[in-house]
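To the wet lab folks,

You asked to see what we're planning to order before we commit. Fair enough. Below is the target structure as tokens, and below that is the sequence we designed to fit it. If anything looks off to you, flag it before the synthesis order goes out.
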């Protein structure tokens, strides 16, 4: 009966899914107290103070021209100058993406995320999305470290102002936070020969990554005006945002734009990335199929189509590619050649990354071996000996572990090792803190590392207890220390000694568990990684033009 009711509820949700949203921009703060002007290359900009007047927020600053009309599917262009002072008190639209109805968002947040909703739920989406947001400590402080955050969303959606990674908490502790938006889906990761031919750089396929690089260039040039140190920039991201961070660490175009990297719950530094990556040929073929469906034959015809007509195909374009420009080769090969950009790396994964992705799989003791064989042909016997399942409950648990390892944690293992081989100071974690909210599922670590665990009077505070606030202080402090110095260790924001987080370089089997207790443990999937590596070695990869990880 419960299963029937749940299925009916999900079906009811799907019926109500639409592409509607409001057109009203989201306020960056409820106060109406404005900052002094800050002068950047394009002109003067005024922000708004936080409720406690301790943080200055500059929301919706354009870092490039709107990628509209003839600029659709072109490299981002320098932003236009403005004569009048820009009032940066509202977040700009999210990237053009499929959005859900208010009813669906309420159901999703209430029953899946155990949350009362987010300020980005019904925010407007637009192709005109190349904006960034800055949180800085109030006053005239100088040479502060800068952390630039790249949001996730499977490269098909997401928002720079989702509350889980809001920048205000960090800005209270002498960090300048910058969150950026970028083109996603069909607007950010389409590939066509015609587009490459018209590009001065002969590139196609990675417009979203080019946006991120453009934003980093803007930060490098302008952040000193906000009190930031342009020579101490850290990039960070979660999920697809972390995939982007790992790609930027490999891109020659991003060299010198940052020094340190934080990546959580995804990486493409692997022989065969498990997601958020396609061959250029596969992206070309996807584009051709969409063009046939749209009954168009050229780029010019595609550019004339309204964004709302294109957006329904956006989820087909959820991967970056080797384009010969942003990524001259696969990130794994770039690392193997010693050409990565970061000097320090903090990265890791959560205990139950796979849960949300396997939730609707029909998994029981009978289907489990078949699923394992399908996922790892030729290696299932070894894996089933290591992860046996005698009943449905155990089968679901074991399959979640296998999915977590294959889709997420193994990619962090390979990224860490590739970085360490090149002398990068590397720190890796394993997040295991359960709660009544997102818990240890995919994205569960964000509210801790960015200091946004809900607190009273927020109604979601009931999902957390004192142990969550203790871990929040520790994790945010690790992230802040790393952004400041490249080393997460030292004192927390309350001047208390943090548990020691050893360099992974010193013992490649040990990671830091971030849970009810913070302690050093052995990486939980080391034996499985040997099998995953052996399986990867049998697959091959083909050429840069025809390899398809799927």
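Sequence we intend to order:
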């Amino acid at each position: 009966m419960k299963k029937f009711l749940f299925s009916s509820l999900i079906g009811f949700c799907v019926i109500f899914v639409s592409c509607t949203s409001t057109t009203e921009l989201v306020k960056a703060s409820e106060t109406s107290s404005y900052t002094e002007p800050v002068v950047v290359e394009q002109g003067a900009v005024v922000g708004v103070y936080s409720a406690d007047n301790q943080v200055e927020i500059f929301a919706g600053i354009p870092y490039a021209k709107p990628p509209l009309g003839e600029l659709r599917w072109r490299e981002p262009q320098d932003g236009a100058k403005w004569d009048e002072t820009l009032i940066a008190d509202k977040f700009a639209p999210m990237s053009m993406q499929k959005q859900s109805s208010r009813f669906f968002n309420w159901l999703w947040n209430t029953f899946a995320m155990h949350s009362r909703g987010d300020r980005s739920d019904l925010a407007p989406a637009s192709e005109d999305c190349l904006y960034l947001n800055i949180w800085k400590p109030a006053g005239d402080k100088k040479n502060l470290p800068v952390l630039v955050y790249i949001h996730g969303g499977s490269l098909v959606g997401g928002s720079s102002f989702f509350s889980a990674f809001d920048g205000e908490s960090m800005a209270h502790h002498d960090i300048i936070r910058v969150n950026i938006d970028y083109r996603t889906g069909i607007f950010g990761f389409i590939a066509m020969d015609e587009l490459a031919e018209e590009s001065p750089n002969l590139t196609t396929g990675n417009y979203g990554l080019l946006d991120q690089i453009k934003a980093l260039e803007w930060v490098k040039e302008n952040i000193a005006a906000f009190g930031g140190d342009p020579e101490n920039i850290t990039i960070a991201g979660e999920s697809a945002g972390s995939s982007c961070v790992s790609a930027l660490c490999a891109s020659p175009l991003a060299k010198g734009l940052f020094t340190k990297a934080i990546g959580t719950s995804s990486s493409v530094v692997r022989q065969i990335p498990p997601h958020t990556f396609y061959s250029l040929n596969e992206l070309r073929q996807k584009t051709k199929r969409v063009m046939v469906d749209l009954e168009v034959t050229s780029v010019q015809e595609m550019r004339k189509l309204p964004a709302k007509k294109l957006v329904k195909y956006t989820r087909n374009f959820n991967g970056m590619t080797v384009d010969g420009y942003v990524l001259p080769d696969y990130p794994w090969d770039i690392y193997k050649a010693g050409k990565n950009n970061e000097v320090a790396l903090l990265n890791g994964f959560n205990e139950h990354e796979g849960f949300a992705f396997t939730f609707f799989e029909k998994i029981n003791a009978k289907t489990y071996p078949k699923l394992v064989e399908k996922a790892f042909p030729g290696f299932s016997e070894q894996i089933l000996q290591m992860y046996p399942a005698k009943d449905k409950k155990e089968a679901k648990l074991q399959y979640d572990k296998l999915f977590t390892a294959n889709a997420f944690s193994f990619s962090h293992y390979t990224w860490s090792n590739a970085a360490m081989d090149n002398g990068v100071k590397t720190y890796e974690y394993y997040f295991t803190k359960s709660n009544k909210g997102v818990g240890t599922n995919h994205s569960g670590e964000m509210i801790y590392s960015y200091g946004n665990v809900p607190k009273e009077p927020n109604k979601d505070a009931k999902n957390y207890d004192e142990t969550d606030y203790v871990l929040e202080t520790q994790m945010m402090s690790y992230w802040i220390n790393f952004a400041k110095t490249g080393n997460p260790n030292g004192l927390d924001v309350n001047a208390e000694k943090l548990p020691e987080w050893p360099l992974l370089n010193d013992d490649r089997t040990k990671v830091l568990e971030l849970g009810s207790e913070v302690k050093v443990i052995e990486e939980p999937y080391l034996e499985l990684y040997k099998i995953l590596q052996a399986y990867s070695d049998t697959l091959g990869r083909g050429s840069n033009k025809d390899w398809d990880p799927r």
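Structural context that might help your review: Confidence is low (pLDDT under 50) at residues 1-20, 542-550. The domain at 2-539 is CATH 3.40.50.1820 (Rossmann fold).

Thanks,
Computational group
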